[in-house]
Amino acid sequence: MYRRICKQSLTMLPNGVPLFLQFSKSFLFGYIFLICIRFVAKNLQLYKNIEYLELLPALVKNAIFLNVVRVHKGFHDEELPRLLLNSSLTRVNLSTSTITDGLLALLAEKCPHLRSLTLSEGNYRFTRPGLCAMIQRLGKLQHLYAKNCPQVDDEFVRLLATSCPQLDTLDLESCKQVGDGSADSLSGMPLVRLNLSYTSITDKFLKTIANERCGKTLEDLNVGHCPITSDGLKALSWNTIKYIGFEGCSIEDLEIVGFGKHLKYICWTISN
User: Do 114 and 136 touch, CB atoms closer than 8 A?
Assistant: First the structure.
């Protein structure tokens, strides 16, 4: 075994460089790149007045943007995102960031190919008109996460449905102004994952979507802590659902659950 490993490690590449040495160079380059990205992200405020930051390659900009959100508690002004956002970004996470109308406008302007947007757990400082103006320009959006957002209501959901027809993942947990008025808007969408826990939907919502496109494509549904009863759950098509949560709902037993071949997970509170 040892001889075999040594022999393979000494295999020469077409450029005459041993395989192990080429691997070491690639690893070293990746490590140095990561160190540089972390350093710039940590000290980003020092660079925002330097014109060259805007001229960085998209790959570098995207790495810096991601690192700021994950490690350094997000963005809290509009100038830095203005320099980093670009058309190659397809996923943006603004959790922990201060989100303003200006930042949403930058997203719409600079990221026309955005597929996934996370607003959840951000510091919401935007207005409803600002949110609506952005969503109308993100026609390729597939995933939207906007938990506990007071600007999201049934009217916004209607706009979302018409503006983003490819949407398949929607998380509006704790958006209290979302209720049964959203059902008609979402019923025709190809949603696969839908989280409406802690909203104001009732059995009427589930009955409306049950036999429409949405009801036939859903795999992951969470309606926990909503005024949902067995009557609403009974209406659902259980042919595609894999994960369902109705914790905190008035469900006395599981007779209404369709134990089809796809169902894998149930989150449920037993009623007293």
Answer: no
Torsion 29-33-39-43 (CA) sign: positive
CA distance 19 to 10: 6
Residues 191, 168: contact at Cβ < 8 Å? yes
Q: What is the pTM (predicted TM-score) of this model? A: 0.84
* CA-to-CA separations, 205 to 64, 169, 189, in angstroms, rounded: 42, 17, 14
Average pLDDT over residues 9-20: 50
Three-state SS letters, 142-160: CEEECCCCCCCCHHHHHHH
Tens-place pLDDT, residues 137-170 = 999 999 999 999 999 999 999 999 999 999 999 9
Which residues, including other chains, have CB under 8 Å from residue 96's CB and lie 6 or more apart?
Answer: 69, 73, 74, 121, 122, 123
Which single residue is written with the structure tokens 């995933």?
Answer: 143
CA distance 68 to 50: 18
By the 8 A CB rule, do 238 and 217 touch? no
DSSP for 27-48 reads: HHHHHHHHHHHHHHHHTGGGTT
Return the bridge partners of 221, or none. 194, 244
- E-assigned strand segments in 113-229: 116-118, 123-124, 143-145, 169-171, 193-195, 220-222
Dihedral sign of CA atoms 170, 175, 177, 179 in order: positive
Rounded CA separation 64/100 (Å): 20
CA nearest to 149, candidates 135, 163, 136: 135
- Amino acid identity of 244? I
